[in-house]
Predict the structure.
Amino acid sequence: MKYLYLIRHAKSSWADDSLGDRQRPLNSRGRKQLGPMGKAVCAAGVLDGPIFCSNATRARQTLDGLIPGDLRQNTYVCPALYTFNHKVLIDWLQERQEEENITLIGHNPALEDLAGYLLKQAPESFPTCGFMQIALPIKHWHKLARNKGRLELFLTPKDVSYEQFNRKRLKLPDNEDSPLARHIPATLHHQYQRMRDLETGVIRGFDDEFLHQYRIAIRRSRAIAESVSETGGDSDLRKATKALKGHARATSQLRDLHVFLADLERWQLQEDTQSALVSSGARSHFANLADVEHRALAKRMAGKKYRKDMDTWHQLITSRHFEKITRKLTTVDIWKALNKRIKQYNALTRQLSQQAPDDDYHSLRKLLKRIRYLAELDKTAFPEMLRQLKHRQQRFGDFQDLHVQIDMLTTFRNGIATEPDMLEPVAGLNDLIAGLAAEKASMRDKILTLGGIDGHLVL
């Protein structure tokens, strides 16, 4: 079995008319494509064999941006690969010797036509900085033939980089001034489409921002539906949100690990603490946990139940039944539901103290989220309240993150405390845990000073 990796150069610039085609460099968008795609191509195995690159400037810059020089063992700049004719590439490949894996960095239409030659069903296009992994059931490269390949992986920049994915995404129209009955169905349909479009990036797992944005979409969809159900009392809608709640919850552990790993890189820690994280194996431990969680989530999202739940949800939010529910919704209905929630929140806040368990703060955080989503059903009626709620949510979110991180570190520390030669690492971890606990206590004080919520209705 042979493996052929095809990489099209990143987006190039046409700004300088004095340059010949071979000398054209990458533009700013092309340079942005390289970082995230580099992680993907290295993970796919391009470093396992020789890498052959066209001698065009844009191709060589693509190579430099995708694969750092210290990781490259067998890299060759090959003038023959500066071609737009796939037959030239076929002839070139058939002359290769015994390499098991070969990577080509070149140009369209040669690469796209080569894929069309090797695959029975090739992708319709091969965009800039695109990547294909093709398996070939041959022992020798001179046996290369039409339709004998199998496409094992096809990635484009928008699959591995949220920034590239979001570059030309359609935004939700500004509909805050339109009737509620009109923009709630449109908002939920927009969020549904966004979830489906984000799924590939979440499953690929090369950019954490895909999961973050997916969580926002699915949790916002669920919250809007729950809010409509709460104001309208519709039991069918209430039942339909349970599946969304389960799928949102399945992302929580991975999200917490992503935040924690990012914070470990961001925190300015003492040298002893940094050393403890390394010598104890904490960083690799949590990175491995994130990998396990990601594989489980990817499997879940590729499963039949997930697809069925999402199809059912789409049918509901586009149904005449849902349209009928939202058509009846008024600002007064929202205010009544909000007033009930705010009274509940303020009563719980009055009972809060420094000695209260973290679960009490967690319950308030969830209640605060429901209040905010209720208010967002009619943003123009509750502008001041929404500003207040967003500020509070940030405080509670920071508190919850610290709670989770302290819990994860404590569990890890307890697991290694009895192991030999772990006395110093455990001491370093204790210092980190103590520092986070002090930060959490400070955040607790800030939450207590917030007091209750003042609801201001604007009509």
Observations:
- The two ends are 70 Å apart (CA to CA).
- The mean pLDDT is 91.
- The chain has three domains: 2-157, 169-329, 330-459.
- Residues 330-459 form a domain with the CHAD domain fold (CATH 1.40.20.10).
